[in-house]
Design goal:
This protein has 76 residues and is an alpha+beta fold. It has one helix and five strands. Pfam families: DUF2969.
């Protein structure tokens, strides 16, 4: 059984245009690699993307972060 090492995740906030609306996009990075994005569709709906693939919808930003990390951990 291997030992779990702590991993530092950096979150960068940007703005992007989707359907002629400017929305807030949170990009999650491990090192220099972007592992996923959480886009704020509205105040209670967040779209989750992992490496350009749609993962799902979350009710809170924190749930979106957790889902991106789960997805990354599953595939690495």
């Amino acid at each position: 059984m291997r030992k779990n090492k702590p991993v530092e995740v950096e979150i960068k906030e940007t703005e992007t245009v989707k359907d002629d609306k400017t929305i807030v996009c949170h990009q999650l990075f491990i090192g220099k690699k972007m592992i996923g994005e959480v886009l704020e569709v509205d105040s209670s709906k967040y779209e989750i993307k992992s490496e350009e693939n749609f993962v799902g919808i979350a009710k809170t930003m924190d749930q979106g972060y957790e889902e991106v990390l789960r997805n990354w951990n599953l595939h690495n």
